[in-house]
Amino acid sequence: MDELIARIAAATGVEPDVARQATGLILAFLRKEGPQAEVEELFTSVPGASEAADAAGDGGGVLSGFAGMIGGGLMGLAGRLGELGLGMSQMQAIGKEVFAYAREKAGDERVGQVAAAIPGLSQFL
Questions:
Q1: 33 is in which domain, residue-wise?
Q2: How large is the angle between the packed helices 16-33 and 2-12, nearest 10 degrees?
Q3: Domains in the chain: how many in total?
Q4: What's the Rg (C-alpha) of the chain?
Q5: DSSP H or E segment with residue 52
Q6: Whose CA is closest to 7, among 121, 75, 101, 88?
Q7: How close are the terminal C-alpha atoms of the chain, in Å?
Q8: Per-residue pLDDT reduced to its tens digit, 57-110
Q9: The CATH number of the domain where 28 resides is what?
Q10: Long-range contacts, 118-123 (Cβ 8 Å, 24+)
Q11: Which of residues 45 and 125 earns the better pLDDT score?
Q12: Distance (Å, rounded) from C-alpha 15 to C-alpha 44?
C-alpha cells in the first residue's frame, strides 16, 4: 500500500497522509457498494486493501452526513473526500491511480467486474 500512496502523492501533489486517507475511503466505498465476492477477491490480490478500508471506517463528518441524506453512493464518497480538502479533479486523479494499481495487482477482469457493478464509478477510472 505504501507504493500506491507514494504514487498518488506524486501524481496529485497531495500529502501522503491525505493520499492514505483517500485511498482508504475509496476502498471502503468499494467494499460497501460493490459485489461482495468480487470485492473480496480484489482485496485479496491488492496487498493492504482490506486494512486500508478498515482504517477508513464508516464514520464521517457533517458533509458526508449531508451527502448520505441526498443519495449516498458516489455522492457520499465525494463528500468524504471533499472533507479531506480534495477537489473533484484530485478525486478523479486519486481514483484513477487506485484503479490502475488494482489492475496491476488483480487484473483488468476482476477490477472491471467491481467497477461495472457500481453506477457512475467510471468517472473515477
A1: 2-124
A2: 110
A3: 1
A4: 13
A5: helix 49-56
A6: 101
A7: 19
A8: 754 444 444 444 445 788 899 999 999 999 999 999 999 999 999 999 999 999
A9: 1.10.490
A10: 118/30, 118/33, 118/34, 118/73, 118/74, 119/73, 119/74, 120/73, 120/74, 121/74, 123/74, 123/92, 123/95
A11: 45
A12: 27
pLDDT digits (tens, 9 = 90+) for 3-49: 999 999 999 999 999 999 999 999 999 999 999 999 999 999 999 99
Q: In whole angstroms, what is the distance from residue 94 CA to residue 92 CA? A: 5
SS3 per residue for 55-117:
HHCCCCCHHHHHHHHCCCHHHHHHHHHHHCCCCHHHHHHHHHHHHHHHHHHHCHHHHHHHHHC
Residues 6+ apart with CB under 8 A from 98: 4, 8, 23, 26, 27
User: Residue 59 is placed in which grid cell?
Assistant: 464514520
